[in-house]
TrEMBL record:
The keyword Transferase applies. Its EC number is 2.7.1.50. It is an enzyme of class 2 (transferase). This is hydroxyethylthiazole kinase. It comes from Porites lobata. Its cofactor is Mg(2+). It catalyses: 5-(2-hydroxyethyl)-4-methylthiazole + ATP = 4-methyl-5-(2-phosphooxyethyl)-thiazole + ADP + H(+).
Length: 295
């Protein structure tokens, strides 16, 4: 495994296993309602993941009710994986209402950079409605940064983007992620071999997870839902707490994958997904002290 990109100690936020445990306990006790405007592929795993970690899912995207659900929800997640004209309207209405009410909302710009409509929608949502957190794979974050930031350092690999999958490393996307966070005044999370959380200046590195996640359909979508649940419990204007909560979500999700693949009955992605759902409930303080990897 490669080493994560190093950051100066002055631009980092310190996270601990005990803080992560406190955040997980708070989530389990509060059971926040997370409104998910997401794609058909991810609805099942996203809803089950939210329930397994202790949150409550609502898969409500109809334009006629979307704003009412925003008022009820603890946080709103917008995932652009499935696009149509009515869904685009719903996404804008939900993001606008969340911004109006001062609620946490998280953007997952699925496939940004792959097609014009995806890139434009993700860019419009960011510029018009100011998300609390943007969580994407390296290719998605680099595409958004390229379209939004005036000056950004893109070090692309030779591989072309593969639909909604990334052809870039998270290390290559760190500088664009920092530029995007600075330009938009939000927290940006780029996930890959190492996960980076940044507000444009400071960086948290999370190194939990397992390669099996690459072949579990909509694992990234479920991760974003986990992140939305953790961040829903903090003040969206407290950037440090948003960063920490994002890092805690990344670690808990990654640890669940690590625990799942240790089960003797895991033979591949199908059984790993099932055991991940079981693993969330078994994570305790001792688990986090032993396995959480923040730097």
């Amino acid at each position: 495994m490669s080493q994560p990109t190093q950051t100066n100690s002055d631009d980092s936020v310190q996270c601990s296993a005990s803080e992560c445990w406190g955040a997980l306990q708070k989530l389990r006790s509060h059971c926040p309602l997370i409104q998910c405007i997401t794609n058909y592929v991810s609805m099942d795993i996203m809803a089950n993941t939210l329930l397994a970690i202790g949150a409550s899912p609502a898969m409500a995207h109809a334009e006629e009710e979307v704003e009412e659900f925003v008022a009820l929800a603890s946080a709103v997640l917008i995932n652009i994986g499935t696009l149509s004209a009515p869904w685009i309207k719903s996404m804008h209405k939900a993001a606008s209402k969340a911004q109006e009410l001062g609620k946490v909302w998280v953007l997952d710009p699925v496939g940004a950079g792959a097609t014009e409509i995806r890139t434009k929608l993700a860019t419009d949502l960011v510029l018009s409605h100011k998300p609390t957190v943007i969580r994407g794979n390296p290719s998605e974050i680099m595409a958004l940064a390229e379209g939004i930031c005036k000056e950004v350092n893109l070090q692309r690999s030779d591989g072309a983007q593969k639909g909604v999958d990334s052809s870039e490393s998270s290390d290559n996307a760190l500088a664009p992620a920092k530029a995007l966070a600075t330009e938009c005044g939000c927290v940006v999370v780029v996930t890959g071999e190492h996960d980076y959380v940044t507000d444009g200046l400071r960086v948290i590195v999370v190194s939990n997870g397992d390669a099996i996640l690459k072949v579990i359909t909509a694992a990234g979508c479920a991760l974003t839902a986990t992140l939305a649940a953790f961040v829903s419990l903090v003040d969206p204007n407290d950037i440090t707490q948003v960063m920490k909560s994002s890092a805690f979500a990344l670690s808990v999700f990654g640890i669940a994958a690590e625990l799942a693949v240790k089960q003797p009955t895991v033979k591949g992605p199908g059984s790993a997904r099932m055991h991940m759902l079981d693993a969330y409930g078994s994570i305790n303080m001792e688990t986090l002290q032993e396995m959480a990897k923040f730097s």
